[in-house]
C-alpha cells in the first residue's frame, strides 16, 4: 500500500489496515490461522496493521465493490476499505473510506512562520536541507521565502521572515521548542542528519531509536544556524 504509507508519513493521525477475511466456517481454528498469518508477515509494521476478519466473505466483498465502484470527475477514486466489525446478519458491516478521509477530511496546521536574523543565510541553508525532508519551494521573495510538502502532499507550510527586532533565541525559553519533519525511511533520517552537519549545524542527538515514544520512532536532532532545534523522524522499521 505505497500510497497510504506515503500519506501516513506526513499525517500522523492517519491509520490504515489490511483486512484479510476468512469465512465463519473457519472460526474454530481461527487462532491457528492467525498464528500462521502472523508468522508469514515478517515486517512488524505490516503485521501490526493487519486485521483478520472472520465473517461472511461475500458481504465483505459486496461492501468493497460498493465502496470503490463510484466515479468522481471521470476518474476512479483511490480508496482503501477498513472493515471495523461484522456484528451479524441483522446489522451491516461497517466500512471506513480511508481514501476519502485522507484526501478531503484531514485537518492539518496550515503554516508556521519563523523569524531569522539573516534571511540570506537561512535561504541557503534550507535550500539544501528541505528536499531531503520532503519539501519543495513555495514562494521566494526578497523579504520572505517558504516551503511546502512536495508532490501535492498535505502538511504544514513553513515561512521564513527577517527579524524586525534584535534578540537571541533559545529553545529553553518560552516559545518554539523544536520542529519535527517526518520522513519515509530511516535512511532519510541519516541523509538529512549528515547534510545538516555538513552545513555546520550543531548535533543534539545522532540518529537512533527512541524507545520511550510510540514505536516505531527513529530520529535525529540538531540545531540550525539560528538555534532552532530540528528533528528528522521516521515512524517505520524500514
3D architecture notes:
By secondary structure, the protein is of the alpha/beta class. The chain contains seven helices and 14 strands. Strand 13 and strand 14 form a beta hairpin. The two termini are 14 Å apart. About 16% of the residues have low confidence.
Distinctive features:
alpha/beta, 4-stranded mixed beta sheet, 238 residues
Topology of this protein?
Layout: H1 2-10, E1 21-23, H2 30-40, H3 44-49, E2 53-55, H4 57-68, E3 71-72, E4 75-76, E5 81-83, E6 95-97, H5 98-105, E7 111-116, H6 119-129, E8 135-141, E9 144-149, E10 157-162, E11 179-182, H7 186-198, E12 202-209, E13 218-223, E14 229-234
Parallel strand pairs: 1-2, 7-10, 11-14
Antiparallel strand pairs: 3-4, 5-6, 8-9, 9-10, 12-13, 13-14
Question: Structural class given helices, strands, pairing?
Answer: alpha/beta
Can you tell me the overall shape?
elongated
Strand content is 25-35%
Major sheet details: 4 strands, mixed
Number of strands: 14
Note poorly predicted spans.
68-105
Major sheet: arrangement of strands: 7-10-9-8
Helix content: 25-40%
Query: Mean pLDDT score, rounded?
Result: 78
- Reading the helices and strands in chain order gives HEHHEHEEEEHEHEEEEHEEE
Count, helices = 7
Evaluate the radius of gyration: 22 Å
State the end-to-end distance. 14 Å
What can be said about this structure in brief?
This protein is 29% helix and 27% strand. With 238 residues, it is an alpha/beta fold.
